[in-house]
Design goal:
- The protein has a six-stranded mixed beta sheet.
- It contains twelve helices and six strands.
- By secondary structure, it is of the alpha/beta class.
- A hairpin with a 4-residue loop joins β5 and β6.
Length: 271
Amino acid sequence: MAPQRKRGTVSPTLLAFGRRFRRLREAKGWTQEAVARRANGGMGVKPQYIGAVENGRTRCTREFAETMDHALDANGELLYLYDDLVKDATFPTWFDWHTIEPEADMLQSYQPLLIHGLLQTPAYASALLKGDKEAVDARMNRQSVLTRESPAPPEFSVLQDEVSLHRLTGSPEIMKEQLEQVIHLAEEGIVTLQVVPSRGEHLGNLGAFNLATMPDRSEIAYVDMTVRGLTLTDPDDIAGVSRALLSARSHALPVEHSLNVIRKVVDEKWT
């Protein structure tokens, strides 16, 4: 039995593109070496590159997809799949959570250090992302999932650790704007936000995480790590994330009390 692919090492969107690419290649009866010779305007690429594309381990260019679409007689299918699955190069290949957020019925999160990405202002995000405009724009575009009209936005709840309210990011002006936005989004009912007092006893202190409940009631988790994030579907992993969520929530303040805490931080620290 082949070993299972470890979740988080490749993007499922790249993997989906690669699988279809491989089927088109195999339908032609071509080896990876044969199709590699036809790439790059006839100059070719290494067969290892074809293998990396098929296994979802690299993001090809649109020019490559266009050449291969023609060579494999795909009638535009590869270009359609490229635009749908591959073109968003602002996200690293391991980050597939942006494809899960729009499909979820419910999103729950615990954030111990920073304001949740779906709640961030452009200035706050820019400070975190070192001014990378494409990355900031991509993060802002993700936020449209919370205000779309159809389908209805997912139910979104965030447990925001109190320490994140006091952690200077960018400048005091940026922090003031950021926390005022959090208050506004909570008051508008876009997010259910609760502040978790800074304590070390609960399981959430192991790190930030997100839990998505899908329309079929299945659950998918995303856990932040130092070098990358992991998207998890294993039932044991989901159970662990759920326990951490319950543990953090058991310490959370009521919603209105939480907003008053944020207002106080804005007035006393960032104004």
